[in-house]
Amino acid sequence: MGLMELLNDDTVEFPVSKTIKVLAGKRLAKTSSWLKAIVLVETGNKHQLRLYGWQKNKEGIWKVRQKFNISKGYSKKLSTIFTTFSEFDSKK
Q1: How confident is residue 6, by pLDDT bands cut at 50, 70 and 90?
Q2: CATH architecture of 3-86
Q3: Which 3-state string (H, E, C) describes the chain?
């Protein structure tokens, strides 16, 4: 399965800046006040994966509260860490 298929979440419109082109994204969690997602974006001539956390303010507008850019340079390291973490049993 390719990246675009993994991040295909047609039901979600991500509240990113108008200067950022969203290519694909996947909602990870949503409550009445928080939206967290991983989004593939195009800025300038480069592509980035971004982990976003938006919080709804008093006016009901989503505002970025967390953002982490994942570059290709360390994506394999993160993949190894995430895989190991998903198998981690903290009770041992």
Answers
A1: confident
A2: Roll (3.10)
A3: CCHHHHCECCCCCCCCCCCCEEEEEEEEEECCCEEEEEEEEEECCEEEEEEEEEEECCCCCEEEEEEEEECHHHHHHHHHHHHHHHCCCCCC
CA nearest 19: which of 42, 50, 39, 51?
A: 42
**Range 43-50 average pLDDT:** 89
pLDDT band at 62 (very low <50, low <70, confident <90, very high): very high
Strand partners, 41: 22, 48
Q: pTM value? A: 0.84
Pairing of strands 62-70, 34-43: unpaired
